[in-house]
Amino acid sequence: MKVSADTEVCIAAGMCALNAPEVFDQHEEEGTVVLLDPEPPAELADKVRRAVQMCPSGALKLQE
Amino acid sequence: MTRTTRRPAAEAVTFPTARQRPLDPPDELGRWRREAPLLRLAYPDGHLGWLATRFATVRAVLADPRFSNRAELTHVPVGRSARELSSLRFPPGMFLRMDPPEHTRYRRLLAGQFTVRRMRLLEPRIARLAAGLLEEMAAAGPPADLVRAYALPLPSLVICELLGVPYRDHDRFQRDSATLLGLERGPEEKIAALDGLLAYLADLVRHKRDEPGDDLLSGLVATGGLTEEEMTGVACLLLVAGHETTANMIALGTFTLLQHPDRLAAVRDDPDVATTAVEELLRYLTIVHIGPTRTALEDVELAGRTIRAGETVTVSLAAANRDPEWFDRPDELDVRRPPAPHLAFGHGVHQCLGQQLARIELRIALPALLRRFPGLRLAVPPGEVPMRTDMNIYGVHRLPVTW
Ligand code: HEM
Ligand code: SF4
């Protein structure tokens, strides 16, 4: 599973960091998504899928 | 009803606020959602615009940059002052009523203050504030009005500490916010309340420049990116948006759970359920029950209709959050419902900035209350609880409880 994040599109809602903190964090000042792990392990797949689904801005893209 | 998709202008609907059952949105909204994705809506100022009630349509409008949130373009769908408010200009800094790129500038300045991680750091403090209020409530003895004893003070204390607004002034800003959000309030009253709030906050912002503290407003002053007027507008938006909303979720959420003892017990006893229940209560109750609105900047084709430039669409978050196309058994309160996107915080670039704070406050506030008072119950029949159908943010005016 590969995931990418577009910080230009991100509105810093934080659903990614809430649902999959192992994979996503938020920038200290701007709150925008920081991708910690662009190729998350399979056991995190559910959490990552949920994060992508819950992201309100469409900033996250998933390749399975 | 025979003509459903092509309802002539004469048949335009008006936005309903009266409810048949206090916890469900007006039945008309559900009926219209089944009939058509977009209906003509007659606004009190004479404007003929639109109403969107389906999840997909509401989301499409909120995600589309061709729809503007600028205050001076909008028509207000309900309320005694709708006509006057439709032409009101908002002070600088109220970024909720701006479009990108102006909106983006403010949002970027603030978003770092509201990240999941920052909000988590507040958890112990919020839990202590909640425990303190609950002890005071216990000491005063039953009965109590839960709104005044707990639901309103808790988020007010939290947002005051976060922003650096002295809580001792709460009577003043709570009164002004209530006037701003009251649908039956007259235009002069509302404008006076806004002016009063802005004058109070302008003083405070100046004070932060001279004597900075360890709070969000002092931090913003220090970055020097905003004028004093802009800072005042930002402070006003955060203060009003930050206490009335969560307060109503706490009180209305408690009222709801008290009518479902099995679900109440699950929220009290199981931390996992507390998390899913908060999400479900946000969806089920959708306290931002009127609008929001967006105005087309150009002609937009949507769901088979043409929305002309200048026409205002009211999107019903409450109706969309009960859309059976998106949710199984949408009218059922299922505190274990697996998390799925809902629209209680809106959608798109204006999606609630304070949502992670609100989630944490609710996740702490509801179980803490139910655990401190295991015998909590209504002190009056449910039908006698005064509902906030007359306010921009839904909820209860008072919640008499005993234990
Ligand atoms: C349960 C509680 C809350 C609910 C249901 C709620 C709901 C909403 C909704 C629906 C919007 C979008 C309005 C629109 O699109 O026109 C919004 C925006 C906003 N909310 Fe909340 N809110 C809550 C709590 C908070 C808190 C605690 C804060 C604290 C700071 C806050 C600050 C804001 C701000 C600043 C905006 C404007 C964001 C923007 O325009 O970019 N809200 N909220
Ligand atoms: S959920 Fe989406 S919009 Fe929110 S911070 Fe993550 S990437 Fe950005």
Please describe what this structure looks like.
The complex is a heterodimer of chains A (about 60) and B (about 400). Chain A is of the alpha+beta class. Chain A has a single domain (about 1-65), classed as Alpha-Beta Plaits. Chain A contains two helices and four strands; from the N terminus they run E-H-E-E-H-E. Chain A has a two-stranded antiparallel ribbon. Chain A is globular and about 30 Å long. Chain A starts with a strand and ends with a strand. The mean pLDDT of chain A is about 90. With about 400 residues, chain B is an alpha+beta fold. Chain B has 16 helices and ten strands. Chain B has helices at about 25-35, 55-65, 80-85, 100-110, 115-120, 125-140, 145-150, 155-165, 170-180, 185-210, 215-225, 230-260, 260-270, 270-285, 315-320, 355-370, and strands spanning about 40, 50, 65-70, 145, 295, 300, 305, 310-315, 375-380, 400. In chain B, strands 1-2-8-5-3 form a five-stranded mixed sheet, with helices on one face. In chain B, strand 1 and strand 2 (about 50) form a beta hairpin. The longest helix of chain B has about 30 residues, at about 230-260. The radius of gyration of chain B is 21 Å and the shape is globular. The termini of chain B are far apart. At the A-B interface, helix 1 and helix 2 of A face helix 4 and helix 16 of B. Protoporphyrin IX containing FE binds next to helix 12 and helix 16 of chain B.
Task: Supply database-style keywords.
heterodimer; A: about 60 residues; Alpha-Beta Plaits; 4 strands; about 25% helix; about 20% strand; B: about 400 residues; 5-stranded mixed sheet; 10 strands; binds protoporphyrin IX containing FE; binds iron/sulfur cluster
Compact description:
With 64 residues, chain A is an alpha+beta fold. Chain A is built from two helices and four strands; from the N terminus they run E-H-E-E-H-E.
